[in-house]
Specification:
Helix content: 25-40%
Distance between the termini: 12 Å
Mean pLDDT: 97
Low-confidence stretches: none
Number of helices: 12
Number of strands: 20
Strand order of the largest sheet: 3-2-1-4-18-19-20
Radius of gyration: 20 Å
Largest sheet: 7 strands, mixed
Length: 361
Amino acid sequence: MSDHEVLHVRGRVLVGPEDVRDELWCVDGRITFDRPAGEALAVTGWALPGLVDAHCHVGLDRHGPVDAATAEKQALTDRDAGTLLIRDAGSPSDTRWIDDREDLPKIIRAGRHIARTRRYIRGYAHEIEPADLVEHVGREARRGDGWVKLVGDWIDREVGDLTPSWPRAEVGAAIAEAHRLGARVTAHCFAEDSLRDLVEAGIDCVEHATGLTEETIPLFAERGVAIVPTLVNIATFPHLADGGEAKFPRWSAHMRRLHERRYDTVRAAFDAGIPVFVGTDAGGSLAHGLVAEEVGELTKAGIPALDALSATTWGARAWLGRPALEEGAPADLVVYDEDPRADVRVLAAPRRVVVNGRVLV
């Protein structure tokens, strides 16, 4: 298909959860609902906006930054799974070259992780002390695409368990600086203890959020703080706990408890009105292309199928400030053989993937 060929998508076009149209066209890489003149290549099926992975790491693997060829493979794997919008929740690699590629997903970057010294995975983050937090947050806010990523807690080897990374005053000043620069702030948090300080300091989102409790869930709901549970990553907690049992038994037991109540935690958050979005945490130890599996995990947690679907489509795009299937929007969409609203497992088998109006899968 040439760059300028017109594409006609017909069947059932899911513009919104209940807004279903019969057809749309892709002209010069953009969506239109007005029939253009001339011939068009036809694609039929159930069409959704390109899926969103709101916690993904392109340019990163378990050892740290990767070369461009590896990052390209990661992005292609996500694309072929139907993920066409990524919030890159921290990467040490420069992936700006992807923005010039019309065949790859669009990326919203959060800059590089900001962690406490020796309190995160080696090679991933800027490792600093609290006195330097505001400066580094300002730097990453300027480098990113409207997001900054903090490491809110991690194992403290002297304590033998997860503990908060940042004092309340410093993290409050850092979040205020990010907001002044027009960026939102998210934080990696597994445990309970860092959450209240982060939310009261003005955090916009929390990744994983396995430490939510009856005390902090209402606070998140009141402040409108979103969570990205990354349940496909939380599934690895028992394996991690086994590996750390001999040296850090308290941490291992804690990780097992967080894992055991993961579904109850997510469902309680959703029931309280906390915005929940799909993220896989791909690019560290997890493979790319797991977005359909994560949607399925949200439904296992008890989130209704339509809400789980919105968490990777219409709702996720609105939260990130990016269009869905709208007049004039980039023609990024995925076509399926069956209605994904009826069975989210359909997401695992895209029939066609369209990026900037071009059929690439």
